[in-house]
């Protein structure tokens, strides 16, 4: 099944292998570097990935997750992003840019004061420590500005020649914070009391980004379906949320879970978020990506055969071995 083609958002992907996004910390304060280009070139030569998802890029300065995170926050970023998209296309792969805002997990070293749904401390800080920037609950004006900046980042990705974008709504980043009962205590239209309230910002961002991209480009979402923590979002929440997100016009969902730095200890092995991805795949028609614990081609094939997902993402194995995809697809 791994070699089978699949259509995503009207674009044909040659196979079901995905190069999953990894924060490389190789940019120059947001700008694409030669080291970054070399990393992607080495791993995508031969065109063995159906889709390459570029590491998360911050859409506005107070959403930065680290010093050398990639940026999509200003027009000056387009030149470097164009080089990146062109390189990957030249190697024969389709590619999307992940766009993101860190919210309450922005480090103090990068952001003096951040934004979050309710000004709460992230579980990441509580569990792994670290100097996180203090945050305040977002005003409606700040929410409106954030939506505009996600759309602007998508426009830059489009101008740069990417095949679309992936909105980051997982791992305890800002959109995930609005969805998670651990981080959202709002009582307004974004209320934690209803699933519609928890997903309102997701839907607004999707609508704004889709308007910029048009109907011919891919619009995916990395979705943290379940917090896998006491008091947090559940797999059933994720299933119901996926149905709502599907109706909003997404091209695919890439299913993940937990909070960055505090993923549950029992989530190990091959396809460790497969319980969420399988449940969502059974209830939606969207193509589903599952990433996590895949070390071999056989691992990826087994997850597809088991109905855990429609596409399989590989991250750590590809980091450690630039030839991983070429070796896997030539066997």
Automatic annotation (TrEMBL):
Keywords: Flavoprotein, Oxidoreductase. Residues 5-328 form the NADH:flavin oxidoreductase/NADH oxidase N-terminal domain. CDD domains: OYE_like_FMN_family. It comes from the Bacteria. GO terms for molecular function: FMN binding; oxidoreductase activity. It holds the Pfam family Oxidored_FMN. Gene3D superfamilies: Aldolase class I (3.20.20.70). InterPro entries: Aldolase_TIM (IPR013785), NADH_flavin_oxidoreductase (IPR051799), OxRdtase_FMN_N (IPR001155). PANTHER family: BINDING OXIDOREDUCTASE, PUTATIVE (AFU_ORTHOLOGUE AFUA_2G08260)-RELATED (PTHR43656:SF2). This is NADH:flavin oxidoreductase/NADH oxidase.
């Amino acid at each position: 099944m791994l070699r089978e083609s699949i259509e995503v958002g009207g674009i044909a992907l040659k196979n079901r292998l995905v190069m999953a996004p990894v924060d490389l910390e190789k940019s120059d304060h947001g700008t694409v570097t030669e080291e970054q280009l070399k990393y992607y070139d080495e791993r995508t030569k031969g065109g063995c990935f159906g889709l390459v998802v570029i590491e998360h890029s911050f859409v506005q300065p107070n959403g930065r997750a680290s010093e050398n995170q990639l940026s999509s926050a200003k027009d000056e970023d387009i030149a470097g992003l164009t080089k990146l998209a062109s390189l990957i296309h030249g190697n024969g792969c389709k590619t999307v840019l992940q766009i993101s805002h860190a919210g309450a997990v922005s480090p103090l070293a990068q952001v003096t004061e951040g934004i979050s749904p309710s000004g709460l401390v992230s579980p990441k800080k509580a569990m792994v420590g670290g100097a996180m920037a203090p945050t305040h609950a977002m005003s409606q004006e700040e929410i409106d500005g954030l939506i505009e900046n996600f759309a602007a980042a998508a426009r830059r990705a489009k101008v740069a020649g990417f095949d679309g974008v992936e909105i980051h709504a997982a791992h305890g980043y800002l959109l995930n914070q609005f969805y998670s009962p651990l981080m959202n205590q709002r009582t307004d239209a974004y209320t934690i009391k209803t699933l519609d309230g928890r997903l309102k910002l997701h839907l607004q961002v999707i609508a704004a980004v889709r308007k910029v991209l048009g109907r011919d480009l891919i619009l995916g979402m990395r979705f943290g379906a379940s917090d896998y923590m006491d008091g947090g979002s559940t797999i059933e929440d994720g299933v119901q949320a996926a149905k709502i997100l599907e109706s909003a016009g997404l091209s695919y969902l890439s299913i993940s879970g937990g909070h960055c730095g505090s993923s549950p200890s029992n989530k190990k092995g091959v396809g460790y978020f497969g319980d969420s991805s399988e449940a969502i795949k059974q209830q939606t028609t969207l193509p589903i990506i599952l990433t996590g614990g895949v070390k071999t081609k056989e691992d990826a094939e087994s997850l597809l055969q088991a109905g855990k997902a429609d596409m399989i993402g590989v991250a750590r194995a590809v980091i450690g071995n630039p030839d991983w995809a070429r070796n896997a697809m030539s066997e």
